[in-house]
Design brief:
The protein is of the alpha/beta class and 223 residues long. The protein is 30% helix and 19% strand. The relative contact order is 0.15.
Length: 223
C-alpha cells in the first residue's frame, strides 16, 4: 500500500512513522508513505496557502488553488482508491472503515488546518471525509497518523501474528475481552482459572462471554 499525506507540517510525522508497527511495515516494503508539503504548491512569494474567508469571520481558510495543483501533480503519477480529507464533521473512523481502506492500493490524505479548506475542495476534489472523533484538533496531522496506523496494521504481513488483528476490539462488533500475563498471582490478584486450564474451547467460550458483557457495560451502542 502507498499513502500520500498532504500537510503543512511534514516533520510532525517523522517520529510517528519511524517507530513500532508503522516503521516495521515500511521496513518490510509493505507500506510506503510520502509527505507532501502543501506550501510547495503555493502561488505566491510568501509560500502561504491560506487567506481570509469570504463574508468575514474569524480564522483563515486553506485555498483551493494550491490544493488543486498538488492533487493534479500527484494524480499524474498514480491513481487513488480514495482521496481523504480529515474533517471533524466527516464520517466516523471505525474498524469497518479501516478494513475497507486496507484493501486499497493507494490512498491520499489531505490534512486540514485553520478554519478548514475552501468548500470547493470538499465538493469537487476529494472522495471521502473522515473524522476520528467529535472534537476539533489544531490540524489534521494527528488524524492522518491515526488513519494510517489503523489501516497499516491490517496489511498482510505487518503483524507478526496476523490473527492478532482479527481479535481486536470492534473487529467482530464487540470490544475485546480482558487479557492477562505472568505472574498468575500478584498481591493476591489472580488470573482467572479458565485461562490456566489449557482447555481452548472453554477459554474461547469465556472470552466471548467476557466480550459480550464488556460491550453491554461499556459500549452498548455496538449491540
Amino acid at each position: 500500500m502507498h499513502i500520500d499525506i498532504i500537510t503543512l507540517f511534514p516533520s510532525m510525522f517523522d517520529e510517528i512513522f519511524s517507530q513500532s508497527i508503522l516503521h516495521r511495515a515500511i521496513e518490510k516494503g509493505l507500506l510506503s508513505v510520502n509527505f507532501i508539503d502543501l506550501r510547495g504548491y503555493s502561488t505566491n512569494n510568501y509560500k502561504s496557502v491560506d487567506d481570509y474567508s469570504y463574508g468575514g469571520g474569524a480564522g483563515m481558510v486553506m485555498q483551493i488553488e494550491p490544493i488543486a495543483n498538488c492533487l493534479a501533480d500527484l494524480q499524474a503519477k498514480r491513481s487513488y482508491g480514495d482521496i481523504i480529507y480529515t474533517a471533524p464533521d466527516g464520517e466516523q473512523l471505525s474498524q469497518a472503515v479501516c478494513n475497507e481502506l486496507s484493501l486499497k492500493d493507494n490512498i491520499c490524505i489531505l490534512c486540514g488546518h485553520y478554519k478548514g479548506v475552501d468548500e470547493r475542495v470538499r465538493k469537487h476534489l476529494i472522495t471521502r471525509e473522515i473524522s476520528i472523533g467529535d472534537y476539533v484538533l489544531s490540524g489534521g496531522e494527528l488524524a492522518a497518523a491515526v488513519i494510517a496506523d489503523s489501516v497499516a496494521r491490517l496489511l498482510p504481513g505487518v503483524l507478526s501474528d496476523e490473527t492478532s488483528a482479527l481479535s481486536d476490539s470492534f473487529q467482530d462488533g464487540l470490544v475485546s475481552p480482558p487479557v492477562y500475563s505472568r505472574p498468575a498471582d500478584y498481591n493476591g490478584w489472580k488470573v482467572p482459572d479458565v485461562l490456566l486450564s489449557g482447555n481452548q474451547r472453554l477459554i474461547d467460550d469465556w472470552r466471548l462471554e467476557q466480550s459480550v458483557e464488556r460491550t453491554k457495560e461499556r459500549r452498548p451502542n455496538l449491540l
